[in-house]
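Support reply, case 0932

Customer input (verbatim):
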Amino acid sequence: MPAIETALPLLMLWAVIGYLLGSIPFGMVLSKFMGLGNLREIGSGNIGATNVLRTGSKKAAAATLLLDGAKGAVAVLLARALVAEDAAQLAGLMAFLGHCYPVWLKFKGGKGVATFLGLMLVLAWPVGIACCLTWLATAALSRISSLSALVAAASSTFWMILLGHPSAFFMGIALTLIVFWRHRDNIRRLRAGTEPKIGAKG
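Our regenerated output:
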């Protein structure tokens, strides 16, 4: 956990900036712009890249993945450059919450996987790379996006300890708990054996 260096009003400002950046629903914006339909009426109804892929557009899904990851990363990088690490981690956490609970969509947002990975990459890049590789390995073996996300999130604190990045440890725990909470329906389907595979349009 980083030392608290920033005055409370400035921390609150970066919390708001982080939240507003994170709450931009890129999946819905891109789907509408590219004429792919309303994501709320497609597949799971989620606004993230996995559901965008169910529209049949790999380009839109890839763009959503990158933009959802970038908004958390931008929040951290801006706060780190302009203020300090405590503001950076707070801005990152709020960007993640903004993605999951955006005010523009009545607080019904995505599950935070791309934003989580983007945050890990800028908070501690070796940990971020390890989490991305964990996601890819699990996806290659299972072909299930939600399982890959859960394994990657659960591994993050292990990677922080192994790779020597303790300052982001509590941030990693908080993000992991939110990822699991956002995937609670997926966990039920995984246990029942009914979770759809990557690319399924159901």
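We compared this against your earlier run and they match. Two observations from our side: The mean pLDDT is 89. The longest helix spans residues 58-82. Please reopen the case if you see a mismatch on your end.
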